[in-house]
Amino acid sequence: MAVILRSNTDLVYLPDHGFVGEEGALRILPQITRHIHRLDISHNLLGSSGTLTLFKGLSTLCLRHSSAELGLGMWGLKEVNLGNNNLDDIAFDGVLAYAKKDVWLKRVLVHGNDITLDEKNVNSIVNSLNGSHITSLSLVNNTSISPKGLVRLMGLLDATELKQLLLSACNLSSEDGLIEAIVNYLASSRSRNLESLELNGNHLGGIGVTKIVDCIESSNWTITTLGLLANHSLSDQLVPFDDVDPDHDHDPIGDRDHNHPGFGPDSDYRLLRAEESRTMDHQIHRRLPEILDRNRILSKRIRLAALKTLVPARIILNAIPLSDEQTARRIIYVISQDRSCDIGGFRLLELPEEVIHLIVRHTSDDPWAFSESQWTRLRKEVSSRDNLRKASELANSRLRGKLPDERRETMRELKNDWLRKGRWDKWER
Predict the structure, then answer these.
(1) Pfam families, alphabetically (predicted)?
(2) pLDDT at 258 over 60
């Protein structure tokens, strides 16, 4: 079959082309030239051996296309789609091992495969993920994922650049401590950069959904997209009618006549399911949108406060107060020119240091948007003349030769990089 190059020529589009195993991988590699940065080879049959061969070849291409001797800049793939390719844990680990070396690779899609996160493989997988620059990872529709393996992954996950994690339709349930592992991760600083978590179409149940929403409300300020739709419990996780002691005072359904024709195993199940549906409807459609809106607002607040403070902070905290001799000369000059009215002025730099810092903080118009650690980091960063010099040199080099529209975009990128580097891009408490 012919290779399809989309109009944006950095993409090789090869889904459903019949690539099988190692032979298929060797047929793909020649299509990846230096101008290619995105690869879609979904719906083939590469399997474990083919995937490992492909990414071994890609590692070689990275070296070839990035040759300093030939005056070539760094090359890499930005996005790889390996959906529905019969990938197992070994293949997935191989993909992530490549991602550790390719700093360009940001988006990896491995949906619809046979990834299990087996306990003997998960440590290597999560270590590779933590060491990569991946910002978006899709594991959607990997229905054989081991709950224990995912619990282990969530406990070790510390991928500082990961912004989006997609785990929808993975047949996940609330068993084996999975909900607690998700909650613990979301409540920790390890999830600081995660903005989107998709868990739609699993079996987390009303209780699991509620715990996750509670965690976002109380302990997470960065998640702005959270998918929890279609998460009814598995039928055996609901309390069936036959397991309820009719003589026991506590009845989860309420007081009723068990001999009434309207009650029985099926009606009991329907009542429990209806109650769970009401719980999830409240959590997902009423509580959650307000919490996610709060997080968006808080992220915007700290970003605006940091950017607004940057210039006045650099000016004030790097200013050098006049010496006694300079002050005396200034006064003598003013008097000699008969300009006594100009002698006055507010001598800001003679105020106590803590007062000066407070004034600078208030130049943001939102001084309490900063956590104490964020404010300390900002104050130290802008007070350094070496940092000021480096920032100026970086801006000059990035802006050189740019057109007006390009300059505006470059300035926006520089500001975003500065916010991320100092961790002033996310709300902290």
Answers:
(1) LRR_6
(2) no
